């Protein structure tokens, strides 16, 4: 059976900082170090929580460094993170 990784409050706060830093980066290249760190944190997630994590990561990647509809995409990415936070916390 797959082991479910549980995130501490500190780890979730670290992830939130990474999400926000990626979304505030001036371009996609500047956001990549934050996105890469997020990806490595999600590699061992199991089942549904993993799906929620990867959905959030896709939204962050899509919004990071975006110039058109930036606020809308940032808002969607943050909503995805908060959804993940509910399942991970």
Describe this structure in words.
It is a single chain. By secondary structure, this protein is an all-alpha fold. It has one domain. The protein is built from 4 helices and no strands. It is globular. The model is unreliable at 1-5 (pLDDT under 50).
Summary, kept brief:
By secondary structure, the protein is mostly helical.
- Number of spatially distinct domains: 1
**In total, how many beta strands?**
0
Mean pLDDT: 88
- Derived from helix and strand composition plus strand pairing, the structural class reads mainly alpha
Please provide the ordered H/E string of secondary-structure elements: HHHH
Note the total helix count: 4
Largest sheet: none
Beta-strand content bin: under 5%
What is the helical fraction, as a range of percent?
over 70%
Q: Gyration radius, to the nearest Å? A: 13 Å
Mass-distribution shape:
globular
End-to-end distance: 21 Å
pLDDT below 50 for ≥5 consecutive residues: which ranges? 1-5
Main attributes of the structure:
0% strand, disordered N terminus, 89 residues, mainly alpha
Helix and strand arrangement:
Blueprint: H1 9-24, H2 28-41, H3 47-63, H4 70-88
Helix pairs in contact: 1-2, 1-4, 2-3, 3-4
């Amino acid at each position: 059976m797959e082991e479910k990784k549980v995130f501490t409050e500190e780890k979730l706060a670290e992830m939130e900082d990474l999400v926000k830093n990626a979304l505030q980066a001036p371009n996609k290249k500047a956001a990549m170090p934050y996105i890469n760190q997020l990806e490595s944190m999600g590699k061992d997630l199991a089942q549904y929580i993993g799906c929620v994590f990867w959905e959030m990561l896709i939204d962050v990647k899509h919004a990071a460094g975006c110039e058109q509809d930036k606020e809308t995409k940032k808002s969607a990415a943050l909503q995805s993170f908060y959804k993940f936070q509910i399942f991970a916390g």
